[in-house]
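If you are new to this repository, start here. Below is one unmodified record pulled from the training split, so you can see the exact layout before writing a loader.
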Amino acid sequence: MAIKRSGVILIDMRYDNKKGRVEPALLLFCQGNVCSDGGGQRDNDDKTDAHTASRELYEESCGLIYISAEHLENCPKFIQKHRKSRSSLYFANINIPEIDTSLFRSNRYALKRQKAPQCWLEKQSIKILYISDVKKALLTEELLLNPTNETSNVQIAKKFQIIVPIMEQYIAQNTIPTLSISPYKNTDNFKDSPFLESIASFALKFPTA
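And here is the target side for that same chain:
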């Protein structure tokens, strides 16, 4: 059975909210108020599951985060079976404060002005959520209050009921590699490492017609 969808779970093992709370957290991408991983359907041009996950993460982060397929191949991979298909997820440890998450909104706005394909505009926001809060939300099926300085409530995709226990196993086994994120302008070979860039230096151009 072919794998039709791939994505990336981004984890910060020691996320500090600057209010005395330091524990594992997730960086998730939200469509409406439902938050999930950065991932999507496989394209014909994708050579491997890792290529799909790399491309989808880049698209769903609006060009904010790139992790090469080669780096993802070194990350733990979980294959989830569905009734008629399968999907794969890669788990990567990052330092969330290295990412200027405020750039997501400006990147998305610039992409929209460039008339980017809809695949670049699917997610409306990104959220940082502690794993312990995600677990509580999944148990109660209630809205989860974002633990950052926001006041809006978000929901967690139901598939995390399966993903979270798997993720905790990888964390306990210490098998999730740490990937550093470097600013694009200071990275000579950015395609071989995660990177961060503003849309001002974004190389992608989309047709205006």
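Two things worth knowing about this chain: The longest helix spans residues 160-173. DSSP finds five helices and eleven strands in the chain.
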